[in-house]
Amino acid sequence: MALAAVLAETSQASAGEASLELAVKATYLYKLAPFVNWPPEAYASAAAPLVICVQGADPFGQVLDRAVSGQVVGSHPVTVKRLPRIDAESGCHIAYLAGGPAQSQTQALQAVDGQPVLTVTDEARGGGARGIVHLLLAGGKVRFSIDARQAEAGGVTISSKLLALAVAVKR
Amino acid sequence: MTPRLPWDRPDRRLVNVAWASAVALLAIGALLAGQTELGYRSQAQRQAEVQADILAASVSAALAFDDRTAMREYLDALRVNRRLAAAAIYDASGQAVVVFHRSGAAAPPTHIDVLSSRFSHRHVTVTRPVAEQGQRLGAVYLETLPEPWTTVLARHASLALLTVLAFLLLGVVTAAASQLQARARLLAEANDRLREEMAARGTAEEALRQSQKMEALGQLTGGIAHDFNNLLQVVHGAFELIRRKADDTAKVAAWAQNGIAAAERGASLTRQLLAFSRSQKLELRPFVVADLIGEMRELLVRTLGPDIKLSVELEEGQALVMSDRTQLELAVLNLAINARDAMPAGGGLTLRTGLHSQPPGDPVLEAGEYVELSVADTGEGMSRQVVERAFDPFFTTKGIGKGTGLGLSQVYGVARQAGGAAQIDSEPGRGTVVRLLLRRSTAAAELAPARGERPPILAPAAGRTILVVDDEAPVRVLAGETLELLGYRVLQAESGAAALALLEREVPDVMLFDYAMPDMNGAELAGLVRARLPDAPIIFASGHADTAAVEAALGGQPTILRKPFNMETLARTIAELLS
Description:
The structure holds two protein chains of two kinds. Chain A is 33% helix and 26% strand. Chain A has an eight-stranded mixed β-sheet, sandwiched between helices. In chain A, a hairpin with a 2-residue loop joins strand 3 and strand 4. Chain A has helices at 2-32, 62-68, 105-111, 148-153, 160-165; strands at residues 36-37, 50-55, 72-73, 76-83, 94-97, 118-122, 133-138, 141-147, 157-158, 168-170. Chain A has a single domain (22-170), classed as Rossmann fold, CATH 3.40.50. By secondary structure, chain A is an alpha/beta fold. Chain A is built from five helices and ten strands; from the N terminus they run αββαβββαβββαβαβ. Chain B folds into three domains: 8-147, PAS domain (Beta-Lactamase, 2-Layer Sandwich), CATH 3.30.450; 282-441, 2-Layer Sandwich (Heat Shock Protein 90); 465-578, 3-Layer(aba) Sandwich (Rossmann fold), CATH 3.40.50.2300. In chain B, 51% of the residues lie in helices and 20% in strands. In chain B, the strands form three sheets. In chain B, strands 6, 7, 8, 9, 10, 11 and 12 form a seven-stranded mixed β-sheet that branches. Chain B is elongated. The interface between A and B is medium-sized, with 20 and 15 residues.
């Protein structure tokens, strides 16, 4: 009982921390956008939306929608798409690869390999897959490492400002 | 007397202009200082803004991903800027995320709502947005340290120095100008004093000339009176003879001729005396010296007396000098009188005119051509001491009452006036030579009045009536008889009143008025006559010395007969008026 109570407390506390962590990650998704340049063909038009895709099991729920709501990057309004699986035709600019039964993180990564899609993987999601941006916890804070080579392969340019902030950069 | 300062006003205007330009300079200086200050401020503001923008661009990612360590590093990097007092980074909600401020400087606000950029109290405060691709991420805040007063002063020092110098210069100019003005005033006053003194001196000189003339006249009188006596003796004798032997017509004519000749000599003597006594201003006119001496010959002979032999040697080139004729005549007369007095036992006087060429280098005479007039006597001569002082006014060796000592000083004055000099060569026992060097003039000689007799223009006298008015019966009767002899009908009146009464009855063709009459003089009478008969021909007879005074009294150019006149002159004057 006592253990159960402790467990419950712990799970509550960790649930709170986890939700804060998720919220931060949710904002990070769109905050990455200003520091990234997509090739012109990535947008259908100047006013075309910047699409953030959440592939697989969505961990954010409403948190992401709220965070993204009303955000504009350059001339592009930010929208969110939730897809069980993604590919080159999905129209994603940023893709958070959560992985799911329809498509694993690794499969998703392969599906958009060489495409101008900023892939984001999360250490917290487990699995060995690593996107261009890999979110991780460092010193109690959500940080990220960047795989510049992968980005370059997809035609995505990442601002040096962002690179400077990364805990590790793979070139 | 107000000192006249013709350049006083422009001078003040100059000073005013200087002040105006100083004020303008000050205004421009202030304007420039203001502009410099504004320029500096906007530049300082701009600098801070640029720095803030650089900071904003640098921290955008760190702010976006809440990397406080990175933000702190960026802020710390700013510390190297010693002019920075404080800096801060705010998140999108305006909440301070990282702050930094130097000790002594106020901490940046913990929250900001609006962006601003301002310069106040010598320091700049700037807040700039942090944004990436239109996404507002937060803001940065920069505050500079207040600019030290020394820097502010240094910035404006050159301008301030210039302004101070300008005013210093202005002060100097004003002081100098006022000093000049004071000096000018003193000068003007001195000038006025000098002018007054000159006027006083002019008056004194006028008086001196008059007294010199009077002295010469006094000197002349003795000799002339004697001469006159002789002339009167001739005239008197002639009439005596005519009265006793009136029937001997041939002899009567000869005696009358003698009498007339004597009277004419007397007339010429009085004419010259009158010319001298005339009180007139100096009139510098060109004339021929030789002619003047020639004309004076008669007078000089009379002045010198029978014991002194006069010889005259005249230059024939008609050389001109610019001088006052009367004054030069007087000078010659003075020299003749001096010579006469120096030769009580008789002797010789030589008057010589010639040309003299003066080479440069003389202390008194300018180089050039001169007419030399020398008067040499064979008298007792003068000692060196006397020669040295001879030209001094009031210096005389003559006894009391015999001379005023003005004669030779007058001679010297004339020579100087004619642009020349006077010199004396004399030794005791060897006579005296006085040399007048008169600057030769290139002006044309004044036409001397024609001396030749003009042919009489005789209008028919018959039937013409002449009115003769003279208070002196002998003169009136003589004139009347002379006119009757010429064939005129003559009316006579002894006063102006009588003449006016006579005019009530009859209007004559010509009227002959004596000028000087008691009760009513000729001019007054003429005025009354002309009021009734504006075109009446009137002749004035005048023995008065000053023709100019008579002309002034009569107005216009009246016909004047100078007394004594002979029959021919009277006849011609009347005939000319009638025709």
